Amino acid sequence: MARNDDRRQLLADAGLNLLAGEGARGLTHRGVDRVAGVPLGTTSNYFRTREALISALVVRIGERLTPSTEDLAARSGRPADRELFADYLRDIVRRLMQNPEVALALIELRLESSRRPEIAALLADWRRRAFAADVDFNTNAGLPGGPEEIALFHYAIDGLILDHLTTPLLPESSTDEAIDALVTGLLPPSRELCLEEGNE
Description:
Elements: H1 4-22, H2 29-36, H3 42-46, H4 50-65, H5 69-75, H6 82-98, H7 100-113, H8 117-140, H9 147-165, H10 175-186, H11 189-199
Helix pairs in contact: 1-2, 1-4, 1-7, 4-7, 4-8, 6-9, 6-10, 7-8, 9-10
């Protein structure tokens, strides 16, 4: 029998698949049981309420989108410049595109949060903490860009992912090209120099 942590992870992944495939209205305890292939009642034993289930899904989204130790190690020691910043962004988009069910589930939760205040509060807290961690990482790594620029990149990447996972405006375009264009536009060399001088 799977350990509790393994079973919780199995159920959370099934919930993300269900959310991505059927939308927020399809996210029920029975539905998760069905997708996970477990006996009816299993999900409700682990997550008593729908809010508890959604909270677990948010945690699982964070786990699945966290860069691996290998990814971070591969970038250590490189100059903290625009190219490294762009490389981190390309990696974020790559992880989202390689886990489309996770990205779509997050989009579904964002939409559901516009209708349900309790989900909005949960997501807002999670997103604020994630954003603060992004800003801290950028600052500690000496990378160009402050909170304002990082927020703009969040906005842009959200739109880029939504576009590529639904009805792409330019189907043949690559996400890497889009990231390079965004970095060039939002962090031009003169802007990067000013930000670096301001950090001294």
